[in-house]
Amino acid sequence: MSAAEPALGETLLRLYPVFATMAPGTVDRLLASAQPVTVASGTVLFDEKNPCRGFPLVLEGSIRVVKAAPNGRELPLYRVIPGETCIMTSSCLLGHTDYSARGVAECETRLLMLPSEVFGALLDHPAFRDFVFSLFSERIAELMQLVEEVAFRKLDQRLAALLLGKGRVLHATHQQLADELGSVREVVSRLLKGFAEQGLVSLGRERVEILDPAGLRAVASVSR
What we know:
By secondary structure, the protein is an alpha+beta fold. The protein has two domains: 4-151, Sandwich (Jelly Rolls); 153-221, Winged helix-like DNA-binding domain superfamily/Winged helix DNA-binding domain (Arc Repressor Mutant, subunit A), CATH 1.10.10. Helices cover 46% and strands 21% of the residues. It has nine helices and ten strands. It has a four-stranded antiparallel β-sheet. Strands 1-7-3 form a three-stranded antiparallel β-sheet. Strands 8-10-9 form a three-stranded antiparallel β-sheet. The N and C termini lie far apart (62 Å).
């Protein structure tokens, strides 16, 4: 075992304590077969119609999973942070199918890539199986909420709700807000200008200040 492996094993157990419930030596075997990977911000880790080549455990950073349209627009589905797993990858491995979404590193991200056969063997352990499927349950609930918002809430409502969840002053471009909403910059810019004219927000360069939280809450919750 190299000098770096004990530290890696400690990180793995801290973030994924499920492995501590398994038989002695499990982590050592994982480290022997897994591939540590560090990628730069913006790296596409997987894309639609690509085969799944391993199961990522996120140690640092985050992965943004999106559904991309041919015109370049993206609908954010969920993020994978340290201690979580990617249900899109789990689904592909379980169903022996290609990816149906894209995963992009949001910042420099460190991963431990488990071979698909190791993932399959881990599923024989009830604790790991429960861990994977409990995250499945959480993600499905989140995705159902996303479907509800996209299908039944107008974009101005969703934008108002997004702003309220970011603090009093939000440092972001209109494009970044559009990406989070699965919209386009021009539409979001128009809505923000309308909010500013109503005195709900103040706009600056890559900056949105909330002036009237109650007013934004009214926009976010209004039934139409």
